[in-house]
# Entry
Amino acid sequence: MIPMNKKIMLGNEAFARGAYEAGVKVVSSYPGTPSTEVTENAAKYDDIHVEWAPNEKVGVEVAIGASIGGVRSLSCMKHVGLNVAADPFFTAAYTGVTGGAVILVADDNGCHSSQNEQDSRYYGRSAGVPMLEPSNAQECKDYIKLAYEISEKYDTVVLIRSNTRISHSRGLVEQGERIERDRIPYTKNIQKYVAMPAMAKKLHIAQEKRMAQIASDCGGMSFEGAGGNAQKLNTIEMGDPSIGIITSGICYQYVKEAMSDVSILKIGMINPLPKKLIEEFAAKVDKLYVIEEGNPFFEEQIRAMGILLAGGKDLFTIQGEYSANMIRKAFGRPVADITVIDDAPARPPLLCAGCPHRGLFHVLSKLKKTVLGDIGCYTLASLPPTSAMDACLCMGASISMAHGFEKAAGDSKDTVAVLGDSTFFHSGITGLINMSYNGAKGTVIILDNRITGMTGHQQNPATGKNAKGEEAPAVDIATLCRACGVKNIVEVDPFNVKELEETIKTETAREELSVIITKRPCALIVKQPDIPYLVTDKCKNCKMCMKIGCPAIEEKDGRPFIVPDRCVGCGLCAEVCPFDAIEITKDGKEAK
Ligand SMILES: Cc1ncc(C[n+]2csc(CCOP(=O)(O)OP(=O)(O)O)c2C)c(N)n1
# Structure
């Protein structure tokens, strides 16, 4: 039986618990897999003000403001989110904090749900802030608590680095009490908080000094682990001295599983590195290796210390995730027999049955438009059968790319920008302001499905609810576009295919900037009637219905067939059928 104060938690749930116990008062984040659940779980604690910011930059700025205001704060994001927040982050690394300030960044080794697999560890090093990396759920909780201690002791922002496996694995976590902390009274300090050149030069020197201090202290740093026991942050676990491995985070777990007999230096503070401890460990083992997913972040620094390594990235890849078997193979040890079910049917990512985005991409594909796209569920429309997206770079890029494309092509009639509601607020709006201000032509299509769909239904400024699910003011997208100077704004139901097609034809033909807002809630929030459609005898087998890429439509005996259990009754297939051959069933019986 699990004791009362212990709970099996997701890594991200444990981070939230740690923030709660540390007395955090403000959390401001933008969703992004694999970091999202930290903020969602923090929102369950009444004692914490938790909000979804429109983007990561705002999230970090709110957290820094709360820190200057004297309370502990947190901002969470995925790796690419830190690019967006890099501006406040780098300067906050100079100014330091009043209340403890922690930024949590979750990397996506293996690109499970991201556009790249950049290694965020370089951010800690290049901004000059301490960075911690836990290796299991208990450490997620313990390390974030320690991060607040370090933040306030050394007057610095602290970065916590997680990744998909740490954030999304579960483990037993011992829960403690929340320690309420009095707000640190605000005292004006222009030299510290106004980062103008004269102050920034001094702040930079101060920052270098504190990092040097942390570098000299980190070898012996400890934290309060489960059972209230003090544990070392960076630890040497001596085993067979013929092989020594320096590792951290999830790779520590893989090494323990693959080679429990070897000696390990487990690094908990990944920036700055504990030089003395590394030298001490190197002296104790015959052959020293570094095992780290991603770039040779440790390896290059350790080699630069003048320490001889027997192996690192020459044995392991920079791309993707590692595993215990990968390590066994690299060291010539027998690999464990793992049963891989390789005859499981492939499940390519698809827009859901009833997804409101589907109608739009059907029309764009039919009209052969060049689509400068963006990041959200709708990115899936780039795949067959619609293949209706030509480019996708980063959040918010669609509008600016469409503008640049028009400047190259000299015409905007065959081009549209497509992005979702959350993405529009995140960073699309600045591209629209740019187009409006620079007198651009072009058509921007905003897919307003009333939610941040791709990351699992987080609220956003247009949804009328906040991060705690309470009623909130809703920003009206059309009014906002008008205020940006756009004169032509049309709202349309993306399931009304004929009207949508006409609207796109009219708006793209204009010699002016226009915005089309497709309005229909995500199929997973507002249920369709759930009465399936049926292909009738009128079908001429043109297969137009199959071109919309609905997962409910299959080919059976050479003809389209609507799988009743998958059809949610949205009726898009009936809309696009040129022969009116698809009809709704009365109660679903005819289709069975
Ligand atoms: C800088 C950055 N932050 C966060 C993400 C994670 N992310 C991918 S799509 C998306 C939001 C999509 O929502 P929306 O634009 O409303 O489209 P929907 O998925 O609802 O169609 C988010 C937060 C990201 N890829 N990049």
Summary: The domain at 533-584 is CATH 3.30.70.20 (Alpha-Beta Plaits). The chain has 20 helices and 24 strands.
